[in-house]
Structure formats: structure tokens, C-alpha cells
Design a protein that fits this description.
The complex is a heterodimer of chains A (about 140) and B (about 325). With about 140 residues, chain A is mostly helical. Chain A has three helices and no strands. Chain B has a single domain, classed as TIM Barrel, CATH 3.20.20. Classes of the chains: A mainly alpha (about 140), B alpha/beta (about 325). The interface between A and B is large, with 39 and 45 residues.
Chain lengths: ~140, ~325
């Protein structure tokens, strides 16, 4: 299977076909309908109380900004509950991974947008960090 | 542990010496004349140990913080350069951090930034390539490891003190101390909080930070606003996202006749300064106003925080 999957970043990898395309479509269909997933290709849903952090208008991966309204809604989209308020509440309900809210999440690799995070997890591509980042966070 | 290196800035020197520090926010200007920055800054000279140069605050363009901070350095006033993730990707942010180092700006403050939707260019593209915790970490990688995020080496790294902000007054309140812990882990050495009108919330936040063991690792400065009028207080409550302005503050401002409202605002700020000084772990105050620098100076004076301890020019660490 490792040979079927692709470790190259999307800019150089061929468009997904066959098994890789099927994987992408299953992931996209499932996660978009269940969690309003934005297909960043480097999923951390389990670490964020099953609230997709890419729904945050500021793309925050490490917690809420200082602009959360007093009612817990988003400053940018005031009719929407803050993603990180949902993440905190959701994380308290999870039997596992609650402590992950304290983890430092790495900067996003924007090349992975619209790729399958399942594929990227299997190939390890979602764990690649810029050389300077070192071992900080996860 | 709190950074115990040789002082990286005058602010750092005072914090290391255990002084109760005062920082203040400089109103960002809309002028290509350097005098406009310096005249405002002079109102804070001798009153604040360091002065924040904001980065397109409230998502309105103003003079670049890199420029205003350098003007302050040349004018003998110590700046804290704010840097937000709203307008720049990781390349531009690193360029500005290195530039700040070259221009001898001794303190930088890494933050997310108010969203463009709240500003006067709501049609602009927001960037948010990385978040404030990434930016903190990157500032420390550049300073401590002498390289960019990519790993490429810097010939000479910057030596600034790295700060962050936190809002103890906005939801999710229980998560805020943990988030501060993440910022400290990422590299924040000092913290300025969002404006505090609700001292009870700050007390709870600080107690929780103490339980998490954070207070030995960073200096925390409480944000205090000096309202000039009931209108200004209402503006904060209704227009600035994330603020908790209790009704009693508005009521007090309303109760004062309009010519007495500036005095009432100073009185409110003084009471808050007095209360936060007693909270364990609070190492200073960060004073803010809207076009009211004179009132900031009054608060510092009437709170008994003058004269400020002498700031010896920051040595290169």
C-alpha cells in the first residue's frame, strides 16, 4: 500500500486517481458532513474536541483569539459559535485526547489543502515540519 | 523559568530587578511626518518604561510599527513593536522580525490581530498564514537558534525580548490559562493582558495560571484602559470584540457630568491599577486610552508610580 500512496507534496504529486481518489472522496464526504471539515490535509480534529479549527476565520490551530464575544460567538461571524469555544467544550466530553488542547500545533503546510489527511497520516507527510521548527509541539 | 539572560531591553532589566513596570500604548498615527509620532510619544516619556507601537490596530492601516518603533528608539523612548499575523505571511513576518533586530528594537509583541472585517478595509484579504503561537516560536527560533523557520542560518540573529498577549476576559474562560501556557511554551517571556475592567476574572485567571506553574515563567502585565467619556466606555463594550465592560463602569461614567467624565475615567483606572497590583504574579500594568495620553500620564502619577526607575540603555545581549 505504501507504494500506492504518495509522499510528495501536492504541487509535485500527480492528481489522485484510483485508490487514492477513492480515499480522498470517502474522507471528504464523511468529514465534511459530520464536522464541516475544510480538508486541510493535516487533520487534528481529535486534538480539538472534534471542532475543525479551519472553520476559524483566522485559521487558528492553537486556541481562540482575543476577540471572542462575551456570548461565546465569533467576532468575525457573530452569529456563529467560536470554533475554539466548541473545541474546549468538545474536548471536555472526549474520553481520550483531552490533554491535547495543551499541545502546540505546528504551522500549517498549505500545500496539503484538499488532499486526504488519511493518506498524509499513512505516508507521514503530515508530520513533516520545516527544518527550523525542530521538535517543538506536535 | 523567567529568562535570566543579560537584559535584552530596558523593560527586561526592570522586570529582572523585580520592579512593578508600566507600559503604555501609543496611538498609531496617520502621518508621514515623524514629529506626529514623537509628539505623542513625548507625552509618555518618563511615565512608561516602554511604549507599544501598534500594528494596524482595529484593522485600520496606520504607520508601520517597524517605522514608529525605530523613531522611538532614535528619540530615546523604548518601544515594544507589535506584530500581527493578519497582514503578513511567514516570510514577511520573519523579514520584519529580522528588521526589528537590525533597527535595535528591543521588544517585540506577537499577536493574531483584529480581523479585517472590523476595520475600514473589510474587503481586504486576511492572511493568517500562521498563528500567534507559531509566530512566538519563530521569533525564538530566530533569536536563540539563529535561523529562519526553514532552517536557513541568519548571519547575525536578533536579540529582542519576546512578548505575547492574552485575554483572560473572553470565552472559553477555563481554557485561557492553558492557552497562556502554550504561549509561554512557544517562547513568550512577558505578557500584556487585554483591558481589565473585571478584576475578579483576572484574579481567577491568575490563580489558575499559578496552579499551572506559569507565574515563574513569564512576567504578566495587566491591561488597564483610561476612559475619557461614557461614550468611550460604550465604544469599548459595543465595538471592540472580546472586552468585558461591566454595566457598573458605564453607569459610573454616565453618572458624571460630561466635563467631569475624564476625571471619573482616571479614577476608575486608578482603582483597577490599585487592585491588580495586589494580585500575585502581576508584574506591571499596560495602560491604554483612545487619544488620551495625558490621562495615562495622570494615572501613572496619581497611582504613585513616579518617578519611573531609570532605564539604562539596553545592551546587546
Amino acid at each position: 500500500m505504501a507504494r500506492t500512496l504518495d509522499r510528495r507534496p501536492p504541487a509535485t504529486a500527480p492528481a489522485p486517481t484510483g485508490f487514492r481518489r477513492a480515499l480522498l472522496l470517502v474522507e471528504k464526504g464523511t468529514k465534511e458532513s459530520l464536522w464541516d471539515c475544510r480538508m486541510c490535509g493535516q487533520c487534528i480534529l481529535h486534538s480539538t474536541g472534534l471542532a475543525c479549527p479551519m472553520r476559524c476565520p483566522k485559521n487558528l490551530r492553537n486556541g481562540p483569539c482575543g476577540g471572542v464575544l462575551q456570548d461565546g460567538n465569533c467576532e468575525v461571524v457573530p452569529e456563529m459559535r467560536c470554533v475554539w469555544v466548541q473545541a474546549w467544550e468538545g474536548s471536555r466530553r472526549l474520553p481520550l485526547w483531552r490533554g491535547h488542547m495543551a499541545h502546540i500545533q505546528r504551522p500549517i503546510d498549505w500545500r496539503l489543502q484538499e488532499t486526504s489527511s488519511w493518506e498524509n497520516l499513512l505516508t507521514g507527510r503530515d508530520r513533516a515540519v520545516p527544518a527550523g521548527w525542530g521538535t517543538a509541539g506536535r | 523559568m523567567k529568562t535570566t539572560s543579560a537584559p535584552r531591553s530596558g523593560l527586561h532589566r526592570l522586570l529582572l530587578a523585580g520592579e512593578f513596570v508600566v507600559t503604555a500604548e501609543l496611538q498609531a498615527t496617520d502621518s508621514a511626518d515623524p514629529a506626529s509620532v514623537l509628539e505623542l510619544a513625548d507625552l509618555l516619556r518618563g511615565k512608561a518604561d516602554a511604549v507599544n507601537c501598534t500594528d494596524n490596530s482595529a484593522a485600520h492601516p496606520h504607520i508601520a510599527p517597524l517605522a514608529s518603533a525605530r523613531l522611538l528608539v532614535e528619540h530615546g523612548i523604548e518601544p515594544i513593536m507589535q506584530l500581527t499575523c493578519r497582514d503578513r505571511n511567514r516570510l514577511a513576518l520573519q523579514a520584519d522580525l529580522l528588521g526589528a533586530g537590525a533597527l535595535e528594537i528591543p521588544n517585540v509583541l506577537c499577536m493574531t490581530g483584529d480581523d479585517v472585517s472590523t476595520g475600514d478595509h473589510p474587503e481586504a484579504s486576511p492572511i493568517y498564514d500562521i498563528d500567534s503561537i507559531h509566530l512566538l516560536r519563530i521569533a525564538r527560533i530566530m533569536r536563540d537558534e539563529g535561523r529562519y523557520l526553514s532552517g536557513r542560518a541568519l548571519a547575525v540573529p536578533p536579540s529582542f525580548l519576546v512578548g505575547a498577549v492574552e485575554n483572560p476576559f473572553a470565552p472559553p474562560l477555563e481554557f485561557r490559562p492553558m492557552r497562556l501556557g502554550k504561549k509561554i511554551e512557544a517562547g513568550a517571556e512577558f505578557i500584556q493582558t487585554q483591558i481589565c475592567f473585571n478584576v475578579d476574572k483576572l484574579r481567577l485567571f491568575m490563580a489558575r495560571c499559578g496552579e499551572l506553574g506559569l507565574l515563574d515563567h513569564a512576567w504578566i502585565l495587566a491591561g488597564v484602559f483610561v476612559p475619557r467619556s461614557a461614550r468611550a466606555a460604550r465604544y469599548l463594550r459595543d465595538e471592540v470584540p472580546g472586552l468585558d465592560v461591566p454595566d457598573r463602569v458605564i453607569e459610573r461614567m454616565d453618572a458624571a457630568p460630561s466635563e467631569r467624565q475624564p476625571d471619573e475615567g482616571v479614577k476608575i483606572a486608578l482603582e483597577i491599577v490599585d487592585q491588580v497590583r495586589g494580585i500575585p504574579g502581576i508584574s506591571g500594568v499596560h495602560l491604554m486610552s483612545i487619544k488620551n495620553e495625558h490621562a495615562i500620564a495622570r494615572v501613572v502619577e496619581e497611582a504613585g508610580l513616579l518617578p519611573r526607575p531609570t532605564v539604562v540603555p539596553a545592551p546587546v545581549a
